[in-house]
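Q: Here's a chain of 250 amino acids. Please give me its 3D structure as C-alpha cells.
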Amino acid sequence: MIPLKSKQEITEIEKACKIVAEIQEELKKVIKPGITTNYLNDAAERTVIKKKVKLAFKGYRGFPESICTSVNDEIVHGIPSPRILKAGDIVSVDIGIFNNGYYGDGAFTVGVNEISSAADKLVRVTEKALYCGIEEARRGNRLSNISHAIQMCVESAGFSVVRDLVGHGIGRNLHEEPQIPNFGPPNRGPCLKEGMVIAIEPMVCQGNWQVEILNNGWTVVTKDHSLSAHFEHTIVITSKGPRILTKLDT
C-alpha cells in the first residue's frame, strides 16, 4: 500500500526538502577543479550543523559518509573521498535530510568547469527526463506513466536508463512504497492519488544501461565505463498536479 500524506506531514516533508535544495545550491557554488569530494561532504555537514538537522545517509544501511558524490562513470552511491575533481569531470551529488521525523531527498549533476558537448548533452537530457517524469505524476495517472515518460525522453536522445535502480516513496522513512522504475510501458501499476509523496530520480548512461558495484560495496558504476548522470526531486501529487518540494522558491 502506498501511504497518503496529510497536509501536516507534507508540510514537514517540505521543510526537509527545502534544506536539501539549500545545500544543493551551496555545493554547486563550490564545485570546481582541485576540490575533493570529501570537501563537498564536509561542506554539507557544516551546513546541517547550522540548521540543526541531520543528513540522512550517514549510517543508513551502513553507508559511511553523509552525502553521495558520484563522478563520471559512477552512477549513484559514490562515497566521498580524497579524490580530486578535474576540469571536464561530471559529478552527481545526492543529499538526504532528516528533520522532525521526516525525510527529503534530491540529487543533481553538474560539470566541473568546461565539459565535452557529449557530457553536456547527457546532463541536460537527464534533467529533462526528470521533468518529463514529474509531468506524468498526476492524480488519476498510472505509476508507470512516470517510468515510460522518462524512458522515452532518454532513449529518444540516444542514451539508456539504468534498470537496476529505482525512485521511491518517501516520508517518515527514506524509502517507502512505491518503487518507481525509470523504464516500462505506460498505464500500468497503481493509480496515483492526491497526497502521495515520491522521489523521482532518472539515472542515465551515455552507453549501455548495465551496471556493476565496486569493491567498496556501495558505488554503482556503468559496466562499460561510459558517463552517467543523475537527477532527483521529491514531489507531492496534488489536485492541481505535481508540486516539487526540493526546489527553492524563486
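Q: Can you summarize the key feature?
A: The longest strand covers residues 90-99.
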